[in-house]
Amino acid sequence: MEYIAYTDAKLKFIGTRKHFFRDKQYYVSVFEDYFVMGITSDTQQPKYKINFDLSIKLNWDLKKQKNNIIIQSFTFPYKNSFKTLYANHDDLMKQLLYCITLFSRFKELLGLSVTYEGIGDLYIPISQIGKGSSAKVYSAQNILNQNTYAIKAIEKSFLNQTEKGQGLAAYKMEVRILKILSPYQQSFLNLKEIYEGDQIYYLVTDYLEGASLSEEIESAKNLPDRRLPIQTIKILMYKLLSNLALLHENKIIHRDLKPDNLMFAKKNDYSSLVLVDFGLATLEYLDKFLFPKCGTPGYVAPEVLTLNSENKYTTKVDIFSSGCILYKLLTGKSIFGGKTFDDVLRANKKCYIDLDLPPDHIYLTDLSLNLLSQLLNKNAKQRITARQALRHPFFDQINDQSTQALSIFVTNVKFSHNGNLNLQCEEQMSKYDIEENQINSEMKEDEQNTISIPATKRCSLMNEFQSQSRSPVKFYQKEPLSAIRCFKLFDLASPRGDSNEIESE
Fold this sequence. Notes:
Elements lengths: L10 E7 L6 E7 L3 E5 L9 E4 L5 E8 L4 E10 L2 E7 L5 H18 L4 E3 L5 E9 L3 E8 L5 E8 H6 L4 H15 L10 E6 L3 E7 L6 H7 L10 H20 L2 E2 L8 E3 L8 E3 L6 E2 L18 H4 L10 H16 L9 H10 L15 H10 L10 H5 L9 H13 L23 H12 L3 E2 L5 H6 L12 E4 L2 E3 L2 E4 L8 E4 L3
Parallel strand pairs: 5-8
Antiparallel strand pairs: 1-2, 1-7, 2-3, 3-4, 5-6, 6-7, 9-10, 9-18, 10-11, 11-13, 12-13, 14-17, 15-16, 19-20, 21-22
């Protein structure tokens, strides 16, 4: 066994293993990647050493006191059996409270390193805020800290039945990426904990109070310019590019940037913009991507749609998508238009962009058009990075006054009363083989899916969701509320309309 440097421990406390004849005391030391339990506080031969891994499942035992609920013990796997460790509390309330604090800190330190069981013991569902073909999303209250979280319940059966097991691989990739991004809570949807039931994976995330950017854009159509104010757009784009800079410095490609996947953590605060829906995200340095040709038509970079086995794209694909978003914010129109969904696909693949737009000296100026041209450069090598874009003079006039003006603006505009999807455009319809009118109708249907959950039904709902039967459909599933589907992108040069399939092969 490697040398254990106890000075590097994140947390130390004393626990008790209860036995039939005599209880045994252990010193517990928690490190970054494992925890150990030994009969002394500095032993190099601990009785137990447990490495943190998502395959390690921990179960917490709760105890109800007068006015609250505490964590009394936890169970961990060891050599084909399970061991339970209790807090070393005595009859004194002070010592008991001390041990309660230790266990709470221990659970917090483990965070995303392990998978927990028994989600129904710690979370009380409030309402269903979204649903999809393979999963549901709930708002829920944590009984320990009383905070509200969002819980995505993903059906194992659906992930396992996807072609070549890529659904499960994509789920693991998403979790891996969300773990990398967990230190940046101000920029990305924050994953808190992971639970597993017999049939369901549960992802516990922050509950986002604000709406999505797509909802804000829709609400702004009631304004005289039918667009968000220019200072609002500058703040939104600056925050988006700041988030992308962090993402790309961690070698992560989002691959599905669009207004639906940009949300506000706080109501009436445009500076709280965060990136959500990492269902198609990947690591830039991988030799082979899952779903290499993917995204939402209308926002996909040209190098993704023309990808072949001899080349590979980079984080610059997200920069192109951010340019498509800026174009929509400035003009009120999509950069790749069409009367039908197939028209949008063809236009996106052809990637003809006309930036010879008449200036209005408010939205369309020399500065804004120059930034657009650099974000939307068809040559990825010549396309600017997020950091370079942040230094563009387009953003020079952002100031405190404009931030204050935003608060007044959002108060006066009549926004959508949709509290159902506020979580979750992270979960919203994305991807493939659905025409725009289908997408809109499905989103409207989701908006009506707020369902209050009686307390009497809490256990059956949270301990295990029942999978619904469905007819077999050949498409990829990644996010609970959005299906990773295959769609046909017709070759414009082909008179027969031969297609290239956007899939993971």
